[in-house]
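quick q for whoever's on today - can somebody do inverse folding on this one?? i tried earlier but teh output was garbage lol. tokens:
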């Protein structure tokens, strides 16, 4: 049975049967909010707003810190060097139901020096396109076990006007047990590079 989380809540990541997890799928999703104005003529003359392209990334940390750019797994680096973090590819619009982007993590195989994986989303070229998370709705992060069973889900529901990136949550190792922390912190970072600097 899936647990619905609130901001700041931390839970142990275990199978529904109570056993230790070995692999997880992290699903992230969002929808573009309906924008007013526009219509046929704006589309006809090329002034319709651009799709909002949100990019999910996983930042693998050692002792809680990002030490190498190669530890950022995103659309430009789909596989971590350990082969234990795999990004399933970029969704350019957020259209459709369910997860928009998915990241798989082999918790058992991940080298022991990695103790935290932070999951973030930024809007591609947000400043240039004048887009922000106030134009996004139904944002969420969820964790599933290796059989696809949803363990927990966190729906982000605050007002994020003028914020261009989001720290959704993190999986971290504490006393040998993997846990999930629902963060939901919005930032004004304009790229994954800017976001990554927060963890150095």
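ok took a stab at it. sequence:
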């Amino acid at each position: 049975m899936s647990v619905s989380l609130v901001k700041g809540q931390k839970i142990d990541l275990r199978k529904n049967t109570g056993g230790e997890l070995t692999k997880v799928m992290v699903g992230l999703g969002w929808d573009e909010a309906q924008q007013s104005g526009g219509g046929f003529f704006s589309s006809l003359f090329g002034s319709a707003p651009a799709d909002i392209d949100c990019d999910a990334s996983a930042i693998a940390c050692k002792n809680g810190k990002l030490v190498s750019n190669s530890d950022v797994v995103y659309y430009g680096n789909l596989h971590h060097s350990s082969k234990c973090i795999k990004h399933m590819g970029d969704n350019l619009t957020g259209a459709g139901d369910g997860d928009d982007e998915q990241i798989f993590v082999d918790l058992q195989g991940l080298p022991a020096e990695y103790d935290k994986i932070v999951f973030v989303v930024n809007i591609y070229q947000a400043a240039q396109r004048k887009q922000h998370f106030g134009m996004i709705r139904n944002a969420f992060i969820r964790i599933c076990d290796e059989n696809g069973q949803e363990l927990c889900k966190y729906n982000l529901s605050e007002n994020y006007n003028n914020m261009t990136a989001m720290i959704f949550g993190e999986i971290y190792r504490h006393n040998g047990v993997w846990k999930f922390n629902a963060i939901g912190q919005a930032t004004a970072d304009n790229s994954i590079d800017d976001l990554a600097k927060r963890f150095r």
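fwiw The mean pLDDT is 89. also The first strand starts at residue 3 and ends at 5. so keep that in mind when u check it
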